[in-house]
Amino acid sequence: MKRILLYIMILFTTVATFAHSGGSYEHSDIFKSMQADDKAAILIVHFGTTHDDTRELTIEALNNQVKQVFPSIEVREAYSSRIVIKRLSERGIYKVNPLEALKLLHADGYTHILIQSSTVIDGVEMESLYKNVEEVSRLFKDVRIGMPLLYSPQDYEDVIKVLTAENKKDVAYIWVGHGTYDATTAQYAMLDYMLKAKGYTNCFVGTVEGYPEFDDVLAQLKASGLKEVVLMPFMFVAGEHAKNDIAGDWVENLKKEGLSVTENLQGLGENPKIREIYLSHLQFITTHRKVDIMEKKSIYEKTGEKITLEY
Predict the structure, then answer these.
(1) pTM to 2 decimals?
(2) Is pLDDT above 70 for 83?
(3) Distances in Å between the alpha carbon of 14 and those of 54, 277, 302?
(4) Which positions are catalytic?
């Protein structure tokens, strides 16, 4: 019964998430395209963490949930952080990076690969994954990559529903993401904007290494007049940054402003509803193939018209 309910929740989220994705996908069932000797596998890619406590509550929780939804499919994992991989290996814990994982899948005879990353935004970690896949895609008959947590506008709406489920208007809620050095850091600002647009003027989004910065959040917080703050990581795992930067620098600096600060150091991956969004992305690519922009342009060039794609 639990598994049936999980399927229903994922199906509902899948339909809602991709109803407005702008014609990027066409229907293509990866399992129905397989021949008798083909083998399918799922690769879950995580940035990774050296913290055992949060690994169990986030990374392993998502891995196990995927295995429940796809009980007959091989499920493997990879870590994208080479630093984390190195530090874990020094403790006798061995993880492979995405490229190594894909080569192992090929060596084991797998022909159809579904990849889902627990990345929060479509940033440099996803770019790295795309490059890894491009390098070995010729080895497989079909490789599909699910979207990160935040991709389509509907994803943002779904995440906001989760974040604000227990919102109190007289309390300021601050989510601090990792951030990035390139233009994709704007996705954090988009989340902050959409929170405000939906009336959650007591909710703020900042980053450790990107935009919005601490001072940007502080300026908005002062303008709100709120004195009670709940500080949370907007990261899949509550690891190094959460325990040092957020629980350290951010808490200290907010308290210097005379604010009452409560820390809630739970990674996003600890929330079952957040994991359901990742699962919906994975479920979607089992029946849909992303159409490359150059593929679309080649058709436009011949017909002078747009092709009709689902969602």
Answers:
(1) 0.88
(2) yes
(3) 27, 8, 33
(4) 178
